[in-house]
């Protein structure tokens, strides 16, 4: 479903959950923890607990940025369709829409990359702390286990990891948004189709010029 940029932009920028508020909260967190970096396991867990709510807000901001980016792509394709076959002078305003949509799309891409990096680091911290809460090596099914020489001897000196660590319970990625992923693929496919049609038109024109 297309998103109306005129409706989306004000709510995206302003409000308690707007982009500005989320970015300010992230910057405040970074400033606080840069000034007093955690050096103990307890402090690291406390920092993670403080960031957990921010990660949810950052994830929501990422989804809204993706929606904004899709809207800019829709606007870009709509502008291209409107100016097709028209005189250049009469389509200046529409072509400006395309230019602004390009700028919005590129800016959103940069912001999305930063947010994905941030959420990736948080995901890895959660993964480690949930499995090794004491910051010490311990047995984790399907991942690792400290064994004695006696246990290895009992296993007939077989060093196959699976014999000792077992099989982990399959993990479910609760952050994966199937509808979002499908929408992104749809937008990318539409853009590729548009580029393919444009390229085919240029190739056909080149053949005509060559008299082929």
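Sequence proposed for the structure above (212 residues):
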């Amino acid at each position: 479903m297309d998103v109306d940029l005129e409706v989306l932009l004000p709510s995206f920028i302003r409000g308690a959950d707007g982009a500005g508020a989320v970015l300010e909260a992230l910057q405040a967190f970074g400033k606080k923890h840069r000034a007093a970096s955690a050096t103990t396991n307890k402090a690291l867990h406390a920092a993670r607990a403080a960031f957990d709510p921010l990660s949810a807000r950052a994830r929501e901001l990422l989804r809204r940025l993706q929606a904004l980016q899709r809207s800019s792509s829709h606007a870009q394709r709509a502008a291209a369709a409107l100016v097709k076959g028209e005189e250049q002078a009469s389509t200046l305003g529409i072509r400006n829409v395309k230019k602004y949509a390009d700028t919005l799309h590129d800016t959103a891409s940069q912001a999305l990359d930063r947010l994905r990096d941030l959420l990736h680091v948080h995901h890895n911290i959660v993964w480690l702390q949930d499995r090794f809460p004491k910051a010490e090596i311990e047995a984790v099914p399907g991942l690792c286990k400290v064994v004695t020489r006696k246990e290895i001897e009992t296993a007939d000196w077989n060093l196959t990891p699976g014999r000792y660590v077992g099989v982990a319970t399959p993990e479910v990625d609760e952050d994966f948004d199937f509808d979002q992923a499908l929408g992104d693929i749809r937008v990318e496919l539409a853009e590729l189709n548009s580029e393919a049609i444009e390229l085919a038109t240029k190739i056909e024109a080149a053949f005509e010029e060559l008299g082929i």
